[in-house]
Design a protein that fits this description.
Structural class: mainly alpha
Number of helices: 5
Order of helices and strands: HHHHH
Strand content: under 5%
Number of domains: 2
């Protein structure tokens, strides 16, 4: 069970790193964590990402004015961030959820 939990933690860490802008030791971290991941598709993604990693490309795609919108609110036509936050607050209140 402990090995399974460690493998799952490694996979989540790998996903997190893959979504971050590449920095100085990014590739070394990816390689190290990918070796601990159990999901072959995730390992393949990490392997494919390393040669393509480039900070400038990341910011061109995901930065301000980039073609990929990392925030969910950006994908809804005409959706305003304030409206989405207001809706979330309503859901939280309706279900008694109080985030920390």
């Amino acid at each position: 069970m402990n090995r399974e939990l460690l493998r799952e933690a490694a996979e989540w860490s790998l996903i997190s790193l893959l979504l971050m802008p590449p920095e100085e030791d990014w590739q070394e971290q990816i390689v190290a964590i990918a070796s601990e991941a159990g999901d072959p598709g995730l390992r393949n993604t990490a392997e494919a990402a390393c040669p393509e990693a480039d900070g400038a490309l990341y910011h061109t795609l995901f930065g301000p004015g980039g073609v990929v919108r990392p925030r969910g609110v950006s994908h809804g036509p005409g959706t305003m961030p304030e409206k989405m936050l207001s809706q979330l607050r309503g859901f939280y209140q309706a279900f008694g959820y109080r985030p920390g």
